[in-house]
Amino acid sequence: MLTLGLSGGLSFAHEEMYDIPKSFTHDGAAVLVDGGEVIAGIEEERLNRIKHSNKFPIEAIRFCLARGGVDIDRVDRIAFYASEEYCNALLGRVRLLTGGALPRIDARTLLAAKLGQGLGRPIDRDKIVFVPHHQAHAASTYLLSGYDDSLIVAIDGSGDFLSGLVAVGSGDRIDVLKTIPESKSLGNFYVSVIALLGYGVFDEYKVMGLAPYGDPARYRALMSSLYTLLPDGDYEIHRDRVGALAQAIEVRRKGGPFTQQHRDVAASLQEALEALALHVIRHEREATGKTRLCLAGGVAHNCTMNGKILYSGMFERVFVQPAAHDAGCALGAALHTTLAAGALKSRRRIEHVFWGRDVGGEAEIERELSAWSRFLRHERAEDLPGRVAEVIAAGAAVGWAQGGSEFGPRALGHRSILADPRPAANKDLVNAMVKKREAYRPFAPAVLAEDAREFFELPPGEDEFPFMIFVLKVREDKRSVLGATTHVDGTARVQTVARGSNPHFWGVLKAFKDRTGVPVLLNTSFNNNVEPIVDSAHDVVTSFLTTGLNYLAIGGFFVEKRAWTWEDVAALAVDIPRHVRVDQIRRFVAMDRAATAFELRNTYDAGVRVSVSADLGEALMRADGARSLAELLADAGVDEPARAQKAAQELEGLWAERFVSLRPRGA
Fold this sequence. Notes:
Elements: E1 2-7, E2 29-34, E3 37-43, H1 44-48, H2 58-68, E4 77-80, H3 84-97, H4 107-119, E5 128-130, H5 133-142, E6 149-159, E7 162-170, E8 173-181, H6 186-194, H7 204-210, H8 220-224, E9 227-229, E10 235-237, H9 242-248, H10 260-288, E11 292-296, H11 303-311, E12 317-320, H12 327-340, H13 362-371, E13 376-380, H14 384-393, E14 398-401, E15 415-419, H15 425-435, E16 444-448, H16 452-455, E17 456-457, E18 471-474, E19 491-493, E20 495-497, H17 503-516, E21 520-525, H18 537-545, E22 551-554, E23 557-561, H19 566-570, E24 572-575, E25 580-590, E26 593-602, E27 610-612, H20 614-621, H21 629-635, H22 641-656, E28 661-664
Parallel strand pairs: 1-4, 4-5, 6-11, 11-12, 14-22, 16-20
Antiparallel strand pairs: 1-2, 2-3, 6-7, 7-8, 9-10, 13-23, 14-15, 15-21, 16-21, 17-18, 18-19, 22-23, 24-28, 25-26, 26-27
Helix pairs in contact: 5-12, 6-10, 10-11, 14-17, 20-21
């Protein structure tokens, strides 16, 4: 049985629906499952290049069908990640928010219409199945855990007017024991407090990383007033009392400096989340007698909390689905539908999530690299792992792109940035030169699976941590050795790498160990701070050229940068991404003077506006993906070299911010 699971929003990438809150639809994805075996899976953001994409996942659908070698008519069921009742209520809310701009339409009809529009053929409405949101989360974790018997807990912000559920898995059955109302949402509780720290939705993991720098005792009493633990694993959340906490601290503006107050609030919030989650899970452990736990939902991406559960000793085994957020619901919806149809053939534990697009064959990669010859020099490396290990040991940061991309938010050695884990200064170096993010945020270590216990305190019976979703303790005598990947509290978000499931990445780790004696590398996602993780060879080259990375290893090639000039940039073909628009507007620039101005905006965030010069604006209005900047400027009447140079330098900045796409002409 072929099942296509979907998560995501209502509009295509080029369509604007600003009035839909981000919390309604985000993290779009598609997964194709055959009898429980994953054939293909990818998040829409990897393809449309919109972080946490709230768009309809049409590119992900096309990829999955192509990878499976089928068209949509061959698919038996199309499973969406929310109940039909919730989707219809959401459409009613959207009609209200848009003043009736959305036609009166039900969710099934709209979903079939979007699929038909995107795939160019009519879709059988009867193939569409709506899966309750948290049941999709539950299926995604239990059915891939390899367990025959388990407690299942899904916790997130919201979905289907709920914020979680508790279930038990036994063989091929998943039985829901209880649901958690949205009023008790741990995800929404966390977001409401981090707003005081200048953060919002999708920033939760940043506060998790900030927490170890603080003292939870300072605001423990105030934080405790925001919730009440009740008997039988129950609790209440008092979000209306967050204002009292706001009165006690200096609220941080977004982008502002951090004070010790902010660090202490983060620490007490993390402590509160752990107290609430363990209160629920401990009760359910005792009530059900289950000795194994499966976790999913956005809150399950709190790796520190996961580590506390693991070390608590409550369970013999703990499994966290690596794409625990809403993208993982595409996976769960497909699995749940397969199970409900009695067509599930496998419940094997997943070994990897390399279900995405391949970075390319050798010939394809070489064509991409050769097209950029004015910017890059490349060569085939006979011993690529050894070459990469050598430059890393010498202090370089290297982009590493191999094979199929990872499903989920973690780079697990197929789309990674690698560096030496030993010098503590490397954390600041990679944060500044590549990631361009807050300096306090930690980096994760990847370690050869066979050497993991030598460096990290692994609980008994748990030897494999391939998904970088648990924070574990670094052995005390190894903390100084792993200066760049050991957090301030002596922990690390560990990934173990097995030769059988991740051979290319295992090879570079082994090569680094052979040269340094340390079987560990600093591993972070291959992207900068404004883009999703890279996916295609073009994404890889773009990110490499617009960050401070020293070298690139892609396929079998070792790549270095050349020095380029503004004329080289001006020779590149300019294109505008589908989710970006160029506006030419007339506005007052002084009390008594109006002028024509140009702005770049996007289709998913009304708050994003970037002003561009008149020369570049005129050129971008003419961009078609085929003509170079030099040609566009000439067409716009810009023929002075100084003005052209200024426009090229401005364009290069927009390229780094991903407002424009540049390619060698003819590539």
